[in-house]
Specification:
about 300 residues; five-stranded mixed beta sheet; 16 strands; binds zinc ion
Length: about 300
Amino acid sequence: MGTASAIPTKTRNHAAIVLKIYDRTVLFDCGEGTQKQIMEAQVSPMKIDDIYITHLHGDHILGLPGIIQSLAFRGRTRPLNIYGPVGIANLIEHIKNLGYFAISYELNVHEIMDDDVVIYQQNNFLIRAMKMKHTVTNYAYKVEEIKQPKFLRPKAIELGVPPGPLFGKLQAGESVVVDGKTIFPEQVLGPPRIGVKLVYSGDTIPQENMIYFAKDVNVLIHEATFSEEFRDKALENGHTIAKDAALIAKNANVEQLILTHLSNRYTTSEVLEEEAKEIFEKTVYAEDMMTVIVENNKEVKIIKK
Ligand SMILES: [Zn+2]
Ligand SMILES: [Zn+2]
């Protein structure tokens, strides 16, 4: 929903990505203007369950006060979870006291303490955070779909397990006892299945850790603030140039690279996309309101507005 860096432009808003996964709606970063962008993306802000903030620079957080207040005005009752680096709890406290409004819902703030940690997990997917180097603490986030191994029903019957609740136990990874004989889940479950994976870098210098973090993902959304010409400036400001992001994508063997966080010195992302493509062909520079569809065993689909 937003693909600009520090200063937004007429066509690019501050950083924000909305992810719909299973029954959850998740926001990554919440730059200024995100409220309107969400509506344009035809996602109800009321449906957002969790917000993951990469770091506390204005271009990634200035949309929070507006969203938090609007949700209160709309009478939200369902809790909202906000994750981010240390300092986010204090920031949210300030936001609660900004302007005159009463919050109608539970705001759960989670400060990430570790360098590499799973911060959210449910049956179908998990979210991991890994610290990356920027001028302030920045976390990259990784979404990993969890595919339960296939339950081999005929095999279970063959082993003497009667269809019914014992099947459920085995499926859940518990062993069961039938006629004094123990049946282990490994005997009746197929090989583990790999789900889709996605990484969003936030703001970072190019770094080795990212190759490890984004290994074999379907989609890597990596910041590329500048082109080659401004390599020194990029590093100085804790950013990555398009070419270096492409090199990471190549070394990490990702399927699709999406560049974002364009400096306002560019009127078009063309140069950056071209430079990156020389190294990694499957690169696209993001545009506001671009949609990306990631499905198992299917090529990543990109729909520009
Ligand atoms: Zn930024
Ligand atoms: Zn930043």
